[in-house]
Specification:
Layout: H1 2-13, H2 17-20, H3 28-31, H4 35-50, H5 52-62, H6 72-87, H7 92-105, H8 113-125, H9 127-134, H10 142-152, H11 154-163, E1 171-174, H12 178-184, E2 187-189, E3 195-197, E4 215-217, E5 236-239, H13 246-253, E6 257-261, H14 265-277, E7 283-285, E8 298-304, H15 319-322, H16 325-343, E9 346-356, H17 365-374, E10 378-380, E11 401-403, E12 421-428
Parallel strand pairs: 5-6, 5-8, 6-7, 8-9
Antiparallel strand pairs: 1-3, 1-4, 2-3, 9-12, 10-12, 11-12
Helix pairs in contact: 1-4, 1-6, 4-6, 5-6, 6-7, 6-8, 7-8, 10-11
The structure holds S-adenosylmethionine.
Length: 429
């Protein structure tokens, strides 16, 4: 019940999933569930959203005629039930019975209860054939696929779209001694310097090193921007969009004197808590970055800007259904303004690293190209392939990091992939 309602809010009202699944401020129907039922609802929603185009197409092929416009709620009941039948390891008959019960409970949908029953039972019987046939259907919305094709070409777009079907593994960044901690945690040491856990269920807080603040959870790709500054001991660096603090922690662990700026009060608090657990220090300023003017120009600035997050769909599959091209355009404009401000904060010769977790060039390559065109006082310091063995494919010809979920091959017992990220290193002349 909760799953279909929450799905409706994502699809019809563009409400992000994270907020609705928050244990304190989340959707009331979700909060009323037991821990086990919450986990099941989360799995159903993430699975439904990951496979939505394939589920919808499979359902439409089984219907003689489309459901009437007024039956949106029924559509969500059907898609969440179909996700369980096709992709989740739960008893199919329970999913069918629940969907029929939901249809019966809603006076607008009662007349469709028999149809729901027949259609879903047929789906159970024909599951293997439906799954085999659905492989040809693109697993992402059309607008997003078109953007991927434009940026990466047909074949790579397909690989990225398929890669986002696999849930992200857990990656960790360690303060020091990555090889030693890789062994202790039975993790794979990635070419980014991150550790990747083998298939893992449970709480990371129970793993060795957590309570001592030795490491933090951070996707491999997300760890790259902070690594672009080179030696940081004694340098003053501002992290302009800092919370929850993965990159602030990296900068501080590398010896920088960090000023961490975060506009949201709640998120600034979370950043402070995270730094405290890691015994790392930074000056945390809960202000708008546009209001920040240091007394003296800085050695470097990290701008990990708010973005469309289209690189994180393995973790947040709702993004593709809540964001649109309009959002990408608006965010790209904001990022360009933020980047121009960031460049005023560093001394001549100072570095600005600009990054975000979008796959769209409007928020990355195009934005930087326009900035360089208009600002002769700024130059790109290209990332060199020879400095990043194993990550050559993630470095663009211009010398930026451009990672995608289709990069990093799986290893024995370890998943592949990483978030889609853009990171560019700029220098004020
Ligand atoms: C992509 S997240 C940053 C993630 C962070 N760098 C990390 O590695 O953990 C962007 C952050 O920027 C913050 N933010 C957005 N607009 C801002 C502004 N004008 N000034 C300061 N922070 C802002 C958001 O609240 C959000 O926490």
């Amino acid at each position: 019940m909760a799953a279909a309602k929450i799905l409706a809010a994502v699809i019809d009202k563009k409400t992000p999933l994270d907020g609705m699944l928050d244990a304190v401020h989340g959707n009331p129907a979700y909060k009323a569930l037991s821990d086990a039922d919450r986990a099941l609802v989360r799995a159903i929603l993430n699975t439904t959203l990951r496979h939505l185009p394939r589920i919808e197409k499979s359902l439409s092929l089984m219907l003689d005629k489309p459901l009437p416009e007024g039956a949106r709620a029924l559509q969500h009941v059907l898609t969440t039930a179909a996700a369980q039948i096709l992709y989740l390891d739960v008893p199919s008959h329970a999913a069918v019975d629940l969907a029929v019960e939901q249809a019966n409970r809603d006076p607008r949908n009662r007349r469709f209860a028999k149809l729901v029953n027949a259609l879903l039972r047929r789906m159970v019987r024909e599951r293997d054939a439906i799954l085999a046939a659905s492989h040809t259907i693109l697993p992402v919305p059309g607008w997003f696929h078109a953007r991927l094709v434009k940026a990466y070409g047909e074949a790579e777009a397909r690989r990225i779209a398929e890669a986002q079907l696999t849930p992200a593994p857990i990656d960790l960044t360690v303060k020091a001694e990555p090889a030693l901690w890789a062994e202790r945690l039975n993790a794979r040491l990635l070419p980014t310097g991150s550790l990747r856990l083998a298939a893992f269920e449970g709480s990371v807080a129970a793993l060795p090193g957590f309570s001592e603040g030795v490491w933090w959870v951070q996707d491999a790709a997300a760890s790259l921007p902070a690594r672009l500054f080179g030696p940081l001991a004694g340098k003053r660096i501002a992290d302009l969009c800092a919370a929850p603090g993965g990159k602030t922690a990296q900068l501080a662990a590398l010896g920088a004197e960090v000023i961490a700026i975060e506009q949201s009060a709640n998120r600034a608090e979370r950043l402070k808590e995270n730094l405290a657990r890691l015994s790392l220090s930074a000056e945390v300023l809960n202000i708008d970055l546009f209001a920040y003017k240091p007394d003296e120009l800085l050695d470097g600035v990290l701008l990990d800007a708010p973005c469309s997050s289209t690189g994180t769909t393995r973790r947040h599959p709702d993004v593709l259904w809540t964001k649109s091209m309009k959002d990408i355009e608006k965010l790209a404009e904001l990022q360009a303004r933020m980047l121009r401000h960031a460049l005023t904060l560093v001394k001549p010769g100072g570095l600005v690293v600009f990054s975000n977790c979008s796959l769209d060039p409007l928020e990355g390559e195009d934005l930087v190209a326009a900035l360089l065109r208009d600002n002769p006082g700024v130059e790109r310091v290209a990332v060199r392939r020879e400095d990043w063995p194993g990550l050559e494919e993630a470095i663009s010809p211009a010398g930026d990091f451009r990672t995608t979920p289709a990069m990093i091959a799986p290893g024995e017992g370890y998943a592949g992939g990483m978030d889609g990220f853009f990171a560019c290193r700029l220098r004020r002349r």
